[in-house]
Design brief:
The complex is a heterodimer of chains A (about 190) and B (about 950).
Chain A (H helix, E strand, L loop, with lengths): L12 H17 L17 H18 L12 H13 L1 H7 L1 H4 L9 H4 L2 H9 L3 E4 L9 H5 L5 E4 L2 E5 L9 H5 L7 E4 L1
Antiparallel strand pairs in A: 1-4, 2-3
Chain B lengths: L1 E3 L2 E8 L14 H5 L3 E3 L8 E3 L1 E3 L9 E3 L4 H5 L4 H5 L12 E7 L2 E3 L4 E2 L16 E3 H8 L20 E8 L16 H15 L4 E6 L9 H9 L4 E5 L2 E6 L6 E7 L3 E7 L1 E6 L1 E2 L4 H8 L24 E3 L9 H19 L25 E6 L11 H9 L4 E7 L5 H13 L4 E6 L2 H14 L7 E5 L1 H5 L6 H21 L6 E4 L4 E4 L3 H11 L5 E4 L21 H14 L3 E4 L3 E8 L2 E8 L2 E7 L1 E4 L3 E3 L13 E3 H9 L3 H4 L3 E8 L13 H15 L4 E6 L9 H9 L3 E4 L7 E6 L5 E9 L4 E7 L1 E6 L1 E3 L3 H8 L26 E3 L9 H19 L3 E4 L4 E3 L9 H5 L5 E6 L2 E6 L9 H5 L5 E3 L4 H9 L6 H10 L3
Parallel strand pairs in B: 8-19, 10-17, 11-12, 11-17, 12-13, 20-21, 20-22, 22-23, 25-26, 25-31, 26-27, 31-42, 33-40, 34-35, 34-40, 35-36
Antiparallel strand pairs in B: 1-2, 2-7, 3-4, 5-6, 9-18, 14-15, 15-16, 24-43, 28-29, 29-30, 32-41, 37-38, 38-39, 44-47, 45-46
The chains are: A mainly alpha (about 190), B alpha/beta (about 950).
Chain lengths: ~190, ~950
């Protein structure tokens, strides 16, 4: 069935599809088989189809073996955990960078594959932005510090602010918040 | 039935069900053991059912009944059902009962009966096994149908690959036993069946034999195009007969006439008869009992100004007893009947209601979770597959579970009471019900918790029936393990649940109606007559809208007389405040509490209201084709009707009038049918023929869409000599100015007639164009003010095409009239009452309740990006300025808890309560009792 057949107007199924397509590319990027994630659309009357799809998917995942141990995966547990954790940390950044594509409405199945490309996702991870505060320009005015959604900025009144890169989620709020007169927050590509 | 409006006494005969309704839980164990099989009436007798069974799988109440084929009822034998029923629900001594009820109003919603083609030899139904009706086919398609959703032939249980549909079976016929009217719904339901057939078997070939494709409903034209574009689908315009059955394979041979190749024969694996709608089974008895008048066709005899009323005050009709109707019309006439009853009985509103009082809620925030698990047998539905005792033992081993118990039926009144009592006695502060889907019984169990003095959100349902025992009946051990998994996940979830408060907001009792046409005025009067102030806002200097330009309807209703009556009633009503020359400048607030700013003849006013109705109507297309605006002899149907009513000399003395249909719609630019123009053309044609029977009237059409009872007028027009000539969109009529044989100035119309296969040249004194109905120019502005959406064709988009045809996704805003889609005056009146009914449902309450399971924002984490705002369908999120930047704020009354905002929020600032990441992840982590990979991910995600 096609996605716009839903009579309710929320149509979240389009978004679910986008997130899945993105998720598959991310799996691929960190060396996991994208076949571990799948989305299928069906109506409430498609019980038999549901069973069929789930059975096939279970078989497919069983054939792949445990996470990271698949034929072309071969990632050690430590490495896997660290890759997963670095991806998890970038979720806010990815959501911001891909905001438009994540809310697109793909009506044509042929367009699924190309919605996110491997090159695009590889480059997304290779060119992760970072933000830092230029100490010479910072007037320690607390504006960015107050607005940072994750409390990643250290500092006090009259105490130059510093971004804790471990905590930073790269949302760019500080860049926007810093008064243009100072322009102390810088973006690194 | 006796009495009068406001005070009827009705005696009902209740046939015995032989089941105690209050005890039966619908578990179905009796059905399993019953030895008697008889043809299942719900599945069109294609498959068998038992003498005791639940009528169909979604029946409400979900309670069995015993049919007369029961051995005990026939021969006093058997009683096996009684011995296997664990709920003690079987009672074979029940007798017919008389019940007397005293009511103030009566609604007849008796529906229709499908046409029975059995006695019509030309279709072969009942004689040839592979000829089925569309009702039979509907069941074949259904996953609860005779072959569990597989389409099979009766003769050999093989999948048919070549199927034909025959339209208009029992409809549009004047022959004996047929109905002369059009059933209105068959064209589109057939298309649905074709699409579903192609979903089942993509290589199936589908052929539809039809007379006209009547895709007049909202979005139906697009639906038709989608069907026609499928590979292997043919629409053939032809009358057909079912000729014979081929003895060797039981295929069906059909004969039909074509324009180019004469009579042809074709063989199909299966033939589906698209049967029409007929009045309810005992319509004559019904009419007699209730003392109402019927039309010649056996439907309610409609009052032209109120299709919901009957000839007897206090008795109303909704749905297809008005005449053939589709679902949306049935739904709004039902809601409209409710509003009319409300008007009649307003003084007694609320007199019989009782308020429930719950014990006060215990604060358990500081306590460790103490979880009680109740595992339901569901009779044998669960326990025949899942080992319930073992599941209970297992539950007791789970962390924080302090009590577990099995119950025969957790939903039974005594079991719910037991849960309440045990929750108190054992000091439980969370409850897990391992039973069925929360879809049906979650409200009941939440209520159970409230009775126990616990917050109702401290409950979770583990669905071990639909998700387990019903689908794994053959793997009992694995099913028991899976039930344990589901319970473990549910317990993990319950541990993290938080108490949530639902809260009440007051409702302003006034309504705002935008638009003072027939829709707006009818709706305003209906609301005001039930004691609510109404502000009626009209763009023009006077009321009436488009109806001012319509002298009569096809059925002969005097529109102008009705309109002046409506206008007088509106002005005289003390609770209706009319603002003319008005424009809405701003709309603030939300359901129950709107404030709308209107600029009108009285200056700027701020109106407080609880509900709003959008009834801004539609406009008419100004044709740019067929010399309109260049040649004075070319007019629109609307103008022609006005000039006939004015007794215009040029019109009355015309020798020839030609009408062209579908001008400006059913095109790529406006890909919809304007619905009213075919009837409009027929109306004008009949009036012209009445003035001068010798006048030549030609109607050039694509499909005549005189649906429903309007078909009779189409036939009358043809009988009176009106010529109907069909044209194809690839070859539209050509029009040029010229002179007639007698030298008079005419419009020369040339059209290719596909039946005669030649070009006809017509000299018209008047050329009348069926100009499309287009959205009102104010539509866009109104839509953005009220935060409601539009359909692709530019009309307002309702919340659900079928089930919520007068509501918007935005709560508290309602819709009626042609602003929704082109429609006839009677349909508009139905919908206007329908919108009033929905408004009353809201305004008659003192408060609106906001659910606890809605979204909330952690302001600190919000970076003010607005992504959530963009995806919210319900306009529930607003950005508010603060000294820490813009922050999203959720209005819990408007939030529907769909969670789209959660998915797009980069920082996780917006969460859906009751379904927070914390709650969901704890449940997912418990999927597997021990698993390396889950643990790995756990470490990573342990950020909360």
């Amino acid at each position: 069935m096609s996605l716009n057949e839903c009579n309710y107007i929320t149509q979240g199924n389009f978004y679910a599809l986008n997130v899945t397509l993105l998720g598959k590319r991310i799996l691929q990027h960190i060396g996991l088989n994208p076949g571990r994630l799948q989305i299928e659309f069906m109506s409430g009357g498609d019980g038999l189809l549901f069973a069929e799809v789930v059975d096939a998917f279970v078989k497919q995942v069983q054939a792949l073996g445990p996470l990271g141990k698949g034929a072309e995966e071969n990632i050690g547990s430590q490495a896997l955990a660290s890759r997963l954790s670095s991806v998890m940390k970038l979720v806010p950044y990815i959501k911001i960078a891909k905001r438009e594509k994540l809310t697109a409405r793909l009506t044509n199945e042929a367009a699924y594959e190309a919605h996110f490309t491997s090159e695009e996702i590889d480059s997304l991870f290779e060119n992760v932005v970072s933000y830092y505060i230029e100490p010479s320009a910072c007037k320690a005015c607390m504006t960015c510090l107050r607005r940072c959604p994750v409390d990643a900025i250290d500092g006090r009144k009259n105490w130059i602010h510093v971004i804790d890169q471990e905590k930073c989620i790269k949302c760019g709020t500080c860049l926007e918040a810093c008064p243009p007169l100072f322009s102390a927050v810088r973006k690194n590509f | 039935m006796e009495g009068k409006a406001g005070n009827f006494k009705v005696t009902l005969t209740q046939h015995p069900r032989y089941i105690r309704e209050d005890k039966c839980t619908g578990c179905g164990i009796c059905v399993k053991y019953c030895p008697v099989e008889y043809p299942d009436p719900f599945n069109q007798a294609i498959s068998k059912n038992k003498a005791v069974h639940v009528y169909f799988s979604q029946a409400i109440p979900l309670v069995a009944y015993i049919d007369q084929s029961c051995l005990y009822l026939k021969e006093k034998k058997c009683l096996v059902c009684d011995s296997v029923c664990q709920a003690d629900a079987i009672d074979l001594r029940q007798r017919e009962e008389k019940i007397n009820v005293a009511v103030g109003a009566i609604i007849l919603a008796s529906g229709i009966k499908p046409f029975d083609p059995r006695n019509h030899a030309e279709y072969g139904y009942g004689k040839m096994q592979n000829v089925v009706t569309s009702m039979d086919y509907e069941r074949l398609l259904s996953s609860t149908g005779p072959y569990r959703g597989e389409i099979l032939r009766a003769s050999d249980k093989k999948h048919p690959k070549n199927i034909a549909w025959i339209q208009c079976v029992g409809s549009r016929r004047t022959t004996m036993g047929g109905n002369s009217y059009c059933s209105g719904v068959c064209c589109t339901y057939t298309q649905k069946q074709v699409i579903l057939t192609k979903d089942h078997a993509p290589d199936a070939r589908c052929t539809i034999f039809h007379n006209d494709i009547r895709a007049f409903g909202k979005d139906f034209e697009r639906y038709f195009q989608r069907t026609a574009a499928l590979p292997g689908v043919r629409f053939i315009r032809s009358y057909v007969s079912v000729d014979r059955e081929e003895p060797e394979n039981r295929n069906v041979v059909v004969r039909y006439a074509t324009a180019d190749a004469g009579v042809k024969e074709e063989t199909f694996d299966m033939v589906v008869l698209s049967v029409g709608l007929t009045p309810p089974a005992d319509h004559l008895g019904l009419a007699q009992t209730f003392g109402i008048a019927l039309s010649d066709h056996g439907f309610n005899r409609a009052d032209p100004v109120n299709p919901i009323a009957t000839s007897r005050p206090g008795i109303f009709v909704s749905g297809a007893f008005q005449g053939p109707t589709d679902i949306p019309e049935s739904v709004f006439s039902a809601s409209g009947a409710g509003s009319l009853c409300g008007t009649l009985l307003d003084k007694r509103r609320g007199k019989l209601t009782k308020e429930r009082i719950y014990p006060s809620e215990r604060d358990v925030a500081g306590e460790e979770p103490r979880i009680g698990v109740f595992v339901c047998h569901c009779g044998a539905n669960i326990s025949s597959v899942v080992n319930v005792s073992s599941a209970v033992e297992y539950a007791l081993t789970l962390p924080n579970v302090v009590y577990a118990k099995e119950q025969l039926f957790s939903c039974a009144t005594n079991s719910a009471q037991e849960i309440t009592d045990l929750a108190r006695e054992k000091g439980l502060n969370r409850v897990v019900i391992a039973a069925c889907s929360p879809r049906t019984l979650e409200p009941l169990f939440r209520d159970t918790l409230r009775e126990a003095g616990l917050n109702q959100y401290y409950m979770d349902m583990a669905n071990i029936r639909e998700h387990c025992s019903w689908v794994h009946s053959k793997q009992k051990e694995a099913a028991t393990e899976k039930a344990k998994d589901i319970i473990r996940m549910s317990v993990a979830r319950a541990r993290r649940l938080e108490p949530l408060q639902e809260f009440d907001l007051p409702v302003n009792k006034a309504a705002l109606v935008v638009g003072g046409g027939i829709a707006g005025m009818t709706c305003a009067l209906s609301i005001a007559s039930q004691g609510h102030p109404v502000h009626l806002v009209e763009r023009d200097k006077e009321l009436g809208g488009m109806a001012r330009r319509i002298p009569t309807t096809l059925e002969g209703m005097d529109v102008q007389a009705h309109l002046s009556d409506l206008i007088r009633k509106v002005y005289q009503h003390p609770s209706i405040h009319v603002l003319h020359d008005a424009q809405i400048i701003d709309v603030a607030g939300y359901v129950g509490n709107f404030e709308t700013t209107v600029e009108s003849e009285r200056g700027v006013s701020r109106i407080q209201h609880g509900a709003a109705v959008i009834a801004v109507g539609a406009d008419v297309y100004q044709p740019t084709e067929y010399l309109y605006g260049e040649n004075p002899q070319v007019v629109t149907h609307l103008e022609l009707g006005e000039r006939i009513a004015e007794k215009d000399e040029t019109i009355e003395s015309a020798q020839s009038v030609v009408m062209i249909q579908c001008v400006g719609c059913r095109t790529t630019e406006r890909n919809y049918c304007s619905r009213v123009c075919c009837s409009h053309a027929i109306k004008n044609a009949l009036t012209l023929k009445a003035i001068n029977p010798d006048m030549n009237v030609d109607i050039l059409f694509r499909d005549m869409r005189s649906y429903g009872l309007r078909e009779d007028y189409y036939r009358a027009a043809a009988d009176k000599g009106v010529r109907f000539i069909r044209w194809e969109p690839e070859d539209p009529p050509k029009v040029e100015a010229g002179t007639g044989e007698d030298g008079r100035p005419v419009v020369k119309v040339t059209v290719a007639d596909p039946i005669l296969g030649q070009r006809l040249e017509l000299d018209a004194d008047i050329l009348s164009l069926a100009a499309a109905v287009i959205p009102s120019p104010s539509t866009d502005a109104i839509a953005s003010l009220f935060k409601v959406t539009l359909s692709p064709d530019g009309f307002f988009k309702e919340a659900h095409v079928k089930l919520k045809p007068v509501e918007f996704a935005t709560d508290g805003v309602f819709l009626c009239g042609t602003a929704h889609y082109p429609k006839h005056i009677q349909e508009t009146i139905n919908q206007a009452y329908g919108a009033a009914g929905r408004v009353l449902t809201l305004l008659s309450r003192d408060t609106v309740v906001a659910s606890g399971a809605v979204c909330a924002v952690t302001a600190k984490k919000c970076m003010g990006c607005g992504a959530c705002l963009d995806v919210c369908t319900y306009g529930a999120i607003e950005m508010q300025k603060s000294r820490k930047g813009d922050k999203a704020v959720v209005n819990p009354v408007l939030c529907k808890g769909d969670g789209l905002c959660n998915a797009v929020c980069p920082t996780g600032a917006i969460v859906l309560q009751h379904f927070t990441d914390r709650v969901m992840l704890s449940q997912i982590d418990a999927v597997s009792a021990i698993s390396d990979s889950v643990l790995q991910i756990d470490e990573v995600t342990a950020c909360d």
